[in-house]
Amino acid sequence: MTISRKRQICLDETPYYHCVSRCVRRAFLCGMDQLTGRSYEHRRDWVVEKLKQLTDVFSISLCAYAVMHNHTHTVVKVDREQAMAWSRDEVIKRWTTLYKPSSIVDRYLSEFNLSKAELQVVEKDTEKWRHRLYNISWFMRNLNESIARKANEEDGCSGRFWEGRYKSQALLDDPALLTCMSYVDLNPIRAGIAETPEASDFTSIQARIKHYQKTLEQTESKAEDQVTAPKRLLPFTGGEHKDKVQGLRFSLADYLELTDWIGRAIREDKSGAIPATLAPILERLNIESEAWLDSVQNYDKNHYTVVGTREASRKFSQASGRKWFCLSRFSLQLYKPITA
């Protein structure tokens, strides 16, 4: 049975969500159509550029993304507090970059003298738009509708391009976020279309690595000190900057090392023991290292609507108005309970 979106998203419990959209009938979004020999690779650029535009407008940040041949993955962080702090003019400016304003709002922008009733209409519209600007469904709607229109126009057809609505998954804590981001960034390696993270085109990890290498060349700084990220990607804030910058609460160096190791394990089809240098990273996040590789490799099979500890899942279900959410046995094996 389909779960209503408002029961899948609860910002009071977590701002982090994993969203997946698939093409209808698993048709080609991008890549090379082996039947016709036609390349759709340029469409992957459409998705990345649209994501960049939307993160400039919405109060939603990108943690990770991967644009595959017939589906897309995005991991996002919603910043409700930022949206609520925006002024009326800021909200209107952002919203009208995507949609044409009403005649009354247009007059307001043109600095006409409005009546009290007209100003109330402007205020009502502004508050409606403010809430939409931190709404994941509106974010995904703008992304998917834009790509569908362009693809249908290019194909000379009409009708649905995406398989129904997007799927969302709540990431309830840092271990869940790290596991999901690794899975998303390593999708091209799992699919056999890339050998390494840096060769994984149209992924956030490739963008982070390129930016990281460029930053090192310019500053000669250590990896742990890098808090910058490609524009529109949420930065890692591990190391000495963790209390100064809003971002992902582990270091870029640790993340790159972990994903590089997992990528090699996936490519070589080996499990093996986690290297001694990586074990402390997972220990700090209360992740069972022995279960982590399998969890990332088989993430889509191992995790359901919510990802996190049993206690975090219980709190999320209560806050979202559900009696319970099903946790896979992998979640129970992977995430240790946090002890005082």
What does this structure look like?
With about 350 residues, the chain is an alpha+beta fold. It has 2 domains: about 10-80 and about 135-335, Alpha-Beta Plaits (2-Layer Sandwich), CATH 3.30.70.1290; about 85-130, no CATH class. The chain is about 45% helix and about 10% strand. It has helices at about 40-55, 80-85, 90-95, 105-110, 115-130, 135-155, 175-185, 185-190, 205-220, 250-265, 280-285, 290-295, 300, 310-320, 330-335; strands at about 15-20, 60-65, 70-80, 165-170, 305. It has a 5-stranded mixed beta sheet, with helices on both faces. A hairpin with a 3-residue loop joins β2 (about 60-65) and β3. The chain starts with 15 loop residues before the first strand and ends in a 6-residue tail after the last helix.
How would you briefly describe this protein structure?
By secondary structure, the chain is an alpha+beta fold.
Give me some keywords for this one.
2 domains; alpha+beta; 5-stranded mixed beta sheet; Alpha-Beta Plaits; 340 residues; globular; 5 strands
Q: What ranges have pLDDT less than 50 throughout 5 or more consecutive residues?
A: 240-244
**Main beta sheet, described?**
5 strands, mixed
Read across the widest sheet, the strand sequence of neighbours is 2-3-1-4-5
Top CATH class of the largest domain: Alpha Beta
N/C terminus separation: 39 Å
